[in-house]
Amino acid sequence: MCEQNPEGKDYTYFSNKHSTWSRIDMVWVSKSLVTIIDNIKILNRDLSDHCPLFLEINKKMTPKKWRLNDNLLKKEEDLEKIKGMIKEYFGFNDITETKPQIIWDAFKAVLRGSLIKLNANKRKQRELEISKLRIEIEVKEKELKANPKNQSTKRILDNLLKQKANWDLEKIANQLKWVKQNAFENANKPGKWLARLIRKKRQNQQIISIKKKDGIVTRNEDIREEFKIFYEKLYSKDPIKPESIMDYLVKQKLGKITEEQRLNLNKEITYKEICTAIKSLESNKAPGPDGFTAAFYKIDQNEMIHFLKKICNQALQEKIIPDSWKEATIIMIPKENLDLLDVRNYRPISLLNSDYKIFTKILADRMKNFLVYWIGEDQTGFLPSRNIKDNVRIIVDAIEYFEQNNQKEVGFLALDAEKAFDNLNWNFFKFLSQELDLGLQIQNGINSIYEEQWAKIQINGQETGKIKINKGTRQGCPLSPLLFIFALEVLLKAINKDENLQGIRLDKQNYKLRAFADDLICIIENPRQNIQKWIMKIEEIGNVAGFKINMNKTKILTKNISKVKQKELGETSGFETPTKIKYLGIWISAKNNQLLDLNYSVKWKEIQRDLDKWSNLNVSLLGRIAFIKMNVLPKLLYLFQNIPIIRKASILKNWQKALMKFIWKKQKARIKYSTMISPKIQGGFGVPDLKIYHEACALNWIKDWIKLEKIKILNLEGHELRRGWHGYLWYNKFKIEKQFGNHFIRSALIKIWDKYKR
């Protein structure tokens, strides 16, 4: 409900009996109408003891944004027409002296007009045929009225009516066919169809009100203006001097990349790379401002791809890109469990043109191959062969370390960066590329994108005017996360090099921090004495890169520190000191024995509520199994992978019973349990066996003990052990050395290993 007159006080009903006024009349409208209400007022009583309400709605007609109708790409005859248009266009224009970038943007404009015309012609043709049919029916009906006994006219009219009925039936049948086919194909397997059926009712994306300094605005124009003002300020140019960035980077002594890496980054873009990038585009994603979907680029048109190759390589050589690549449409995604009256609590996602994404995907793949070697193992985000569970594992092992070394004080600083991706200074990663000597071509490619950018913000289906983007990486761009971790790695390297910043030190190895993109957690020994050093180090890079600490959301979890000292730490640092923090979706406290209750118990209660809610849905046995695979298993599997600590078999057994109860609708099972959990290839139903999944995840941890590859993790996990890992795995030394089982994680894992060891 939205109060339109929060400050005024008026009434709608007068009680003659009590001589009192009350306000009991309301107007209920959908969210989409709330923001276009111009005026609402209470009129004088006339025919009733209730006052009439007057509501004025300002429904302005806004031009509809064009988007390619992908159905035009499905029929062979339409596809051939489109391919012919493309071939003809490039045949005429590829030989001119006009800049390729202008030719490319003009190509999209010309083709857009042709596709609009083609779509309109198809619709008109159909409407014309139906209109002719109706006229013929009308003529024959008049003839039949004039001469009811004319059998010839009657037969012709019957045929015409059948044709009309066939047109109508064909239209309805196509709709029903899609609905039935979609239901038939998707009702019994994980997918969007089932997801829509069981998910919580999605909050309408309509933004109906926003806070401003002097109150709350509810009109579309005012809401758009608030977002425009906020993002114009957010994306305004930082007053950071280029000289200060260069001085900072030179002091870091980052070194240069290898010649082989430089060659791979700067080689010419090939036809094959473009085709690979096109295949990777997701077909169902919303297009950028030009309206061309990913499906358009997948029609395998040589002329178009060859010309796009020319555009991409010219960007690498001359730092020139088409103007359409500089544009974006920003949509707002509300963040969960936050005040949606605040413009800061929306995540800006850029809708970018598909051709731009093809180019940046190629650059991203090249950068990824380089960054996997240059970025240290502390960063696990967006890189191949990096695993999010290693971050949680290090933190859990660190808590065990300080559990045994309880004379040492420690703080785990869960750092939150304010609008991390949106505040990144462009000059920082440009100068960083120069400092590492990445090469001219890759620098030109990146700089061509981050020289000039514009965007329109789309709110409630309507766009603001253009705003200039002067900083930040576009969320929605394939290159964006890699540029972010590229820049952030400078901070990570600086922290690891600084001997004044104390973490854990074991066997000449430091354990100071872990990062997954901008989710950063620091391990700070003696935090009361050292916290200011850490803050200064982080602010040092923040002053040149735009990385800003969000003081309201940054928290520090302490261990081996009294409450009095904890309070002192909070006052010194300005950070909250809670008893638990959430890192990468896992609740962590100062005691690892609380992991089960904080994570598994809470998650299972949430799952149980969902199962109760879904139990009344009219879904088949196979559909219910699909529910579990899609909405239950991923939630538990994430916990299994990150904290495989369940010791009691009864816990998993009870959970499995609850799942089977849901599958059989609380009735007696009619198929053997062993058949239900057997794989489909063996004639079973493939119901997830939670015990097997948990044990598999535990064995995946133990695999590191066997292979001895992740030395840094293993040194911390077994910091106090007297023997090598294989002694405990193969020779049962854990039974002799009781200290092995004192570790909360190790004791859970070795129990599973002992079961499967041969």
From TrEMBL:
<feature type="domain" description="Reverse transcriptase">
    <location>
        <begin position="314"/>
        <end position="588"/>
    </location>
</feature>
<protein>
    <recommendedName>
        <fullName>Reverse transcriptase domain-containing protein</fullName>
    </recommendedName>
</protein>
<dbReference type="InterPro" id="IPR036691">
    <property type="entry name" value="Endo/exonu/phosph_ase_sf"/>
</dbReference>
<dbReference type="Pfam" id="PF00078">
    <property type="entry name" value="RVT_1"/>
</dbReference>
<dbReference type="InterPro" id="IPR043502">
    <property type="entry name" value="DNA/RNA_pol_sf"/>
</dbReference>
<dbReference type="InterPro" id="IPR000477">
    <property type="entry name" value="RT_dom"/>
</dbReference>
